[in-house]
Design a protein that fits this description.
The protein is about 80% helix and about 0% strand. The longest helix has about 40 residues. The protein has two domains: about 80 residues, no CATH class; about 210 residues, MetI-like (MetI-like fold, Orthogonal Bundle). The protein is mainly alpha-helical. It is elongated. The chain starts with a helix and ends in a 7-residue tail after the last helix. Its main location: membrane. It comes from Halorubrum hochstenium ATCC 700873. One of its GO terms (cellular component) is plasma membrane. It is found in: Cell membrane. It is a multi-pass membrane protein.
């Protein structure tokens, strides 16, 4: 299939997915009880306000400030159109323009996610391949055990312990430690175990294959043997690479950024949910879907490169 057709197909699927997800989020936040409004009403009543007209005025002012004083279908059409045109309006909580707010937060998160992802792929593939090709070696077994241990330990516990040892331990680390080094380490720990497991499992399928025995019989180095195995195991591993990363990182970023106070994508979405800041939440959803579509396109393109026998369609 032509790469342009693949790109167009994935873009169409992304638009359909975006519509379903955005509509679902819009419905959940507009058709359910508004806890922010309930809190304001509760504070008014706690302060002694019991006049129904005054409480109704609070509701009317709240809905007007959020643009929800119009027919719901009209509000839905306007906001959905704004999502498509990237005119995401302003945050209901802070009043800042949503598009640069979301982009800045995503860039801040990428500053520690991308290095962690690269390290996890390199280390995970290396450890998994060594463990599959040389199961008798202690290096491979120890690497697998360490990776699984890091994978099993809760991220919030690892982060809390690191924070405790640095702050409560009377250490005075530079800001780089909390802003980049520790977040990279926690995201790396969340991803490493999965990559070790996948690369080890898929490499073991080819470790005893005839072509591997032939390569070894010719006196090839361990590096050349591993390269042959990884080339054949690359497609099933690569198909899980992006999915695993997206799933784990979406969860990890919330923990990491809430723990270290990083003004990134996860913390922005947490605050948006707490404040029912629908423009920010919908804009963040568009970014997540966009990353997913781009990742799927890259996967499709990579299949043909990794194995020319695979039809790109």
């Amino acid at each position: 299939m032509n790469p342009l057709r693949i790109l167009a197909k994935r873009a169409a699927m992304g638009l359909a997915t975006s519509w379903v997800v955005l509509t679902t989020i819009f419905a959940l936040f507009t058709l359910t009880e508004d806890w922010v409004l309930s809190g304001q009403i509760g504070l008014a009543r706690y302060g002694g306000e019991s006049d129904p007209e005054a409480l109704a005025a609070i509701r009317a002012e709240y809905f007007a400030a959020r643009g929800l004083d119009r027919p719901l279908i009209e509000v839905y059409a306007d906001w959905l159109g704004n999502m498509v045109t990237l005119d995401w309006g302003s945050s209901l909580a802070s009043g800042e323009p949503v598009f640069p707010l979301v982009m800045d937060a995503a860039a801040r998160t990428a500053a520690y996610v991308v290095p962690a992802l690269a390290l996890a792929v390199v280390c995970g593939v290396s450890i998994g391949t060594v463990a599959a090709l040389y199961p008798e070696r202690r290096v491979g077994s120890a690497g697998v055990a360490a990776a699984y241990l890091l994978f099993a330990l809760p991220g919030f516990w690892l982060g809390g312990m690191a924070f405790s040892f640095t702050v409560d331990g009377r250490l005075d680390p530079p800001p780089f430690v909390f802003d980049h080094l520790l977040p990279i380490g926690l995201a790396f720990a969340a991803l490493l175990g999965g990559y070790v497991s996948y690369s080890r499992a898929h490499s073991r399928e080819y470790a005893a294959a005839e072509f591997v025995s032939l390569v070894r019989a010719k006196g090839a180095s361990g590096y050349r043997v591993a390269a042959h195995v990884l080339r054949n195991a690359a497609i099933p591993f690569f198909s899980m690479l992006f999915t695993e990363a997206l799933g784990l990182l979406v969860l990890s970023t919330f923990v990491i950024e809430a723990l270290f106070g990083i003004e990134g994508f996860g913390l922005l979405l947490l605050r948006a949910v707490a404040a029912r800041d629908l423009p920010v939440l919908l804009g963040g959803t568009v970014v997540v879907i966009g990353v997913g579509v781009v990742g799927n396109v890259v996967q499709d393109m990579a299949y043909g490169y990794l194995d020319p026998r695979v039809e790109m369609g």
